[in-house]
Amino acid sequence: MPTLRHAVSLFLPGGLVVAAALVVLRPGVVPGVVEVYVHVWAVLVLLVGVFLAWYYNRGRIVFALLLLTGVDVALRWLGPGETFRGDAGRVVVAVVAVLLPLNLAAYAVLAERGPLTGGSLRRLIPILAQVVGVGLMARGYWPAVTTWLDHRVVGVGWTDWTAIPQTGVLAFAAAALYLVARCARHQDPTEAGFLWALVAAFVALHGISRGWSPTAFLAAGGWVLIGALLETGHRTRYYDALTELPGVRALNDTLSQLAGRYVLALVRVDHFKRLRTSFGREVGDQIVRMVATQLRRVAGGGMSFRYGGDGFVVLFAGASAEDAVSHLDAVRRAITAYCFVLRSPGRPRKKPAAPTPATGPRVVITVTVSIGAAEREDETMRPRHVIRTARGALRDATAAGGNQVTA
User: Fold this and answer.
1) Which terminus of the chain has a smaller tally of CB atoms within 10 A, N or C?
2) In what order do the strands lie in the sheet with 369-376?
3) Shortest CA distance to 373 belongs to which of 389, 353, 357, 350?
């Protein structure tokens, strides 16, 4: 179940941007002088977004921005009076209402690739093919497809609040539910950004019949994607991808802001190189993730950081060494009590329909950690001196046989 903090992080900042757009960008709210520059704003969103996506090497954002821009160009080509009234306008809106949410949901979950790689550029082919297909249907080709897109799937009362065809409403709903389910399982700023860009795109199409500018809301969706891009870049710089713990940069920033007394503890997995050599890199990564999970649960207000390789740092602000050692020893015992059961070579990767007895030996790994802690009592003591003292305590713990806390 997602926590309240998870729900808030899902709403911010994308949901806030879309909510603000609903309040500010409606006719009569924005001054006429500002409305003239809406298209300039949309172009600025595209240019800034593409530049940042290129800088952060995020191809999915580039294609999403191109999708939103393409929809905006198509709607402007039709003109405000032809969007729902003319035959071509109804066809374009119906096709866009189905294809746009499906495309956004697909690009949200695709593996990330740089915008200029060959594999990433091949993803542009479906977009170009869809543009050609929309143009052909607007000119009267494939009438059977056009008729299907305008087909009523459920009762009129379910969708009479919007001029978007029912197939489009269902496509948006399916894509939104899919992205919500993914965001509920794990926190990914990029996927959350795609979710709110999807909402902004729906508002853009829905508001056409009410006289709202689709360009303004599509541009708002672009700003949501830019915000997700910046948040992802921040997480990449400050958080470790394997453990999702804050990294060295975040640790340095935290230490530079701390005043007064604190305790810094260095944590190292005992015999990690030997374990990784014997059982492989995948098992080594699992060990690191397990230790990170246990350290994240440390009591006493401890903050955990990844310190490279099999190393971690636990920081207790305002604590004494005596208080911190008890909490560190508790997490050390929790790690020791956790055992790995290795997958046997002949064991199938998928769970069989009927249970089968194990044929090979049951291999269990017991993981232990050594912890060295140091207290900063004097404010003149710099963080690097505290780390050096903790490193010495860690060497003492390792030399004494490991699986212990030394301060």
Assistant:
1) N
2) 303-306, 311-317, 262-269, 369-376, 405-406
3) 389
| DSSP secondary structure, 241-288, as one string | TTT--B-HHHHHHHHHH--S-EEEEEEEETTHHHHHHHH-HHHHHHHH
Q: Check if the beta carbon of residue 136 is closer than 8 Å to that of residue 91.
A: no
Quick: pLDDT tens for 176-225.
999 999 988 877 889 999 999 999 999 999 988 888 889 999 999 999 99
Say yes or no: domain 248-346+361-406 is CATH 3.30.70.270. yes
Residue 329, classed as helix, strand or coil, is helix
The domain ranges of the chain are 4-238, 248-346+361-406
In one-letter notation, the amino acid at residue 165 is P
220 Cβ contact partners less than 8 Å away, ≥ 6 residues apart: 17, 18, 21, 25, 200
Tell me the C-alpha distance between 107 and 228, whole Å. Answer: 14
Query: Mean pLDDT, the chain, as a whole number?
Result: 84
- pTM of the shown model: 0.72
Per the CB < 8 A criterion, the answer to whether 113 and 186 are in contact is: no
- The one-letter amino acid code at 103 reads N
Q: Which helix (H) or strand (E) holds 204?
A: helix 189-206
Instruction: Give the number of other CB atoms < 10 A from CB of residue 131.
Output: 14
Asked if residue 86 has pLDDT above 70, the reply is no
Alpha-carbon span 80 to 358, nearest angstrom? 68
State the DSSP H helix or E strand holding residue 314, giving kind and residue range, or none if neither.
strand 311-317
Q: b vs e for 192-202, b when ≥16 Cβ sit within 10 Å of the residue's Cβ?
A: bbbbbbbbbbb
